[in-house]
Amino acid sequence: MSIKTSGLHHVTAIGGDPQRNADFYLRTLGLRLVKTTVNFDDPGTYHLYYGDESGKPGSLMTFFPWRDAPSGTRGTGQATTTSFSVPPNSIGWWKDHLAEAGITTGRIANRDGEDVLTFDDPDGLRLALVAHPQGDPRDPWDNGHVPAEHAIRGLHSVTLSVAEEEATAEMFRELGLTFTGQDSNRLRFSAGEGGPGTIVDVLVTPDAPRGLVAAGTVHHVAWRAPDEQTQASWREELVDRGVNVTSILDRQYFRSIYFREPGGTLLEVATDAPGFAIDEPLLELGRALKLPPWLEPDREQIEHTLPKLNLPSENNPERA
């Protein structure tokens, strides 16, 4: 078995109003908008990428925000919680910070030795902040909204809800993840060396209703491939195992393949390269609307269709 992903690449969800989405993820959570582009399959809709300073794989949360999108329903066949990694001893600060922003949070819980704070974004997307006791060596985005000592380091994990565990667990083993433990109906798998940014929890809820993907739910979860050659090899291996996999698709900032795990969640394998600085300088990431070459002839119409976004100046600091 050659497939061995090193961890999460990004999580993509469906949002509602684009400005409200940007305000929350930039100002409340303190992430950086690293790319403003469109949904390549529906260019009348933004595709907003949030992450660390350069949008490194494993730091990314992305959105298709539709202003009038109907609300989805959490349930089986979905990623039902997206968790971000924060430093040890920061959960209390975040609870106060979110309360000041009008966000209701759950009680601080401890799971597998990690402090966990759960809450919903303005569209009802279930999120969590997780503090690993050994910390997270990744650098945060240094912005004016969240102090660096408390700032998000990147993705921590995703939780998938399934009706049955066996086939989903086997799929993650096929992707090179290792089963690391079970707590009641929650199974944990980790990629690579483990730790924040590598984890998927599989929550087995046989009596839960099937989820409906719309605003406030996750569209897909992406795992890392180091390069295009490896991705192509993995795709062949998945096809040989009977998995229905898309062709390799050009997403400009990475190459992608998509398939569903047996429980129903849409998964992606995305390449680490070429990254978000391919079409604009690092200090200007996210500032301008970027379109792939095949959509450039329609730029005027697309810009007319998309609502204007007001971004905080901290997203593009003037640094030497």
Percent of residues in beta strands: 25-35%
At the fourth level of CATH, the homologous superfamily is 2,3-Dihydroxybiphenyl 1,2-Dioxygenase, domain 1
Under the CATH scheme, which architecture would be assigned?
Answer: Roll
Radius of gyration based on Cα positions: 19 Å
Run of helices and strands: EHEEEEHEEEEHEEEEHEEEH
- Level of helix content? 10-25%
Estimate the mean pLDDT confidence: 95
CATH classification, class level: Alpha Beta
Distance between the termini: 46 Å
Q: Any key phrases for this structure?
A:
320 residues; alpha+beta; 2,3-Dihydroxybiphenyl 1,2-Dioxygenase, domain 1; eight-stranded mixed sheet; 5 helices; 16% helix
Structure description:
- This protein is of the alpha+beta class and 320 residues long.
- It is built from five helices and 16 strands.
- A hairpin with an 8-residue loop joins strand 11 and strand 12.
- The radius of gyration is 19 Å and the shape is globular.
- The strands form two sheets. The chain has an eight-stranded mixed sheet with strand order 2-3-4-1-13-16-15-14. Strands 6-7-8-5-9-12-11-10 form an eight-stranded mixed sheet, covered by helices on one side.
- It has a single domain, classed as 2,3-Dihydroxybiphenyl 1,2-Dioxygenase, domain 1 (Roll), CATH 3.10.180.10.
